[in-house]
């Protein structure tokens, strides 16, 4: 479990995160949703220790990362896997070299052991045999899967995926979501997915944190979102008339009314 307590972050005199309190539940897919510019990536970067919040506590299973000693912090960071917005693969390296990179940096494995581990995670993301390909030779969905393979190669306890579906078609997006969900459940990871994607919200949103202009507006599950009365959330999620009607029908159905 990751707890966020009173997180604040400004760049210059612009407040980006304003007193964020939220929980990322253990062993579940936690989603951070919100409009572009609402602070999702900055919040995620604070959580993974790439940005230092100005105030507040980020507590990983009882331990506050913001006040940790360097050595302990380094160890914790090795338990964090991250899929960056846009995959961020090294273009001049093969799939295998990309996925092996964290092992080269942080493990003492022999080359044979590292190769074996790379094959294991490539199999996990359905990319067996793609080892020697370069990022420019594979599709967007495959790149995301390579990014996921690299994020899980060190067996992380916490997995962060920033916009894993951006630029993908709905079907490929669903496959990526399912893969993230499967990995979360199989390895009991605490997963945080930043997304705009309504399908993801409904499909894998065990726990959802909705951000609006640097503040947390709402927190709950995908079951609860349908019945939420938060106006900002409803405007964001059920943006089209079609979705507003669908929500209305669901609510009437739940109340036993005809439509
Ligand atoms: N390093 C930085 N320096 C200054 N301002 C920044 C920096 N990083 C982000 N910001 C600002 O913080 C705000 C929130 O950005 P952030 O990237 O967290 O948004 P987001 O919710 O992830 O949006 P998107 O959905 O487009 O990815 C934006 O106004 C952005 O310009
Ligand atoms: Mg972002």
Automatic annotation (TrEMBL):
Which superkingdom heads the taxonomic lineage of this protein's source? Answer: Bacteria
Which one Pfam family would you cite for this protein? ABC_tran
Q: What are the ABC transporter domain coordinates in residue numbering?
A: 2-238
Q: Which UniProt keywords apply?
A: ATP-binding, Nucleotide-binding, Transport
What SMART domains has UniProt attached to this entry?
A: AAA (SM00382)
Q: Which SUPFAM superfamilies match?
A: P-loop containing nucleoside triphosphate hydrolases
Database matches in InterPro entries: AAA+_ATPase, ABC_transporter-like_ATP-bd, ABC_transporter-like_CS, P-loop_NTPase
Annotated GO molecular function terms are:
ATP binding
Q: What is the protein named?
A: ABC transporter ATP-binding protein
User: What species is this protein from?
Assistant: Parasediminibacterium paludis
Q: What is the lineage of its organism?
A: Bacteria, Pseudomonadati, Bacteroidota, Chitinophagia, Chitinophagales
């Amino acid at each position: 479990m990751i707890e966020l307590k009173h997180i604040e972050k400004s760049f210059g005199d612009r407040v980006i995160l304003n007193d964020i309190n939220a929980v990322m539940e253990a062993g579940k897919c936690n989603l951070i949703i919100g409009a572009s510019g609402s602070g999702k990536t900055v919040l995620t970067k604070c959580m993974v220790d790439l940005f230092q919040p100005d105030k507040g506590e980020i507590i990983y299973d009882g331990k506050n990362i913001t006040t940790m000693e360097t050595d302990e912090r380094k160890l914790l960071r090795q338990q964090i896997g991250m899929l960056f917005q846009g995959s961020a693969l090294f273009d001049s390296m093969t799939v295998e070299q990309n996925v092996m990179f964290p092992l080269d940096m942080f493990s003492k494995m022999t080359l044979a052991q590292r190769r074996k581990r790379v094959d294991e995670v490539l199999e996990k993301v359905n990319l067996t045999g793609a080892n020697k390909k370069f990022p420019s030779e594979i599709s967007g969905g495959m790149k995301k899967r390579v990014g996921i393979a690299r994020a899980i190669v060190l067996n992380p306890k916490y997995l962060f995926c920033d916009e894993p579906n951006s630029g993908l078609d709905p079907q490929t997006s669903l496959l990526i979501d399912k893969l993230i969900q499967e990995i979360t459940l199989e390895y009991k990871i605490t997963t945080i997915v930043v997304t705009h994607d309504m399908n993801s919200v409904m499909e894998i949103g065990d726990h959802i944190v909705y951000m609006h202009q640097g503040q947390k507006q709402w927190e709950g599950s995908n079951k609860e979102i349908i019945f939420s009365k938060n106006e900002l959330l409803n405007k964001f999620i059920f943006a089209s008339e079609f979705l507003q009607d669908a929500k209305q029908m669901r609510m009437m159905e739940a109340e036993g009314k005809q439509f």
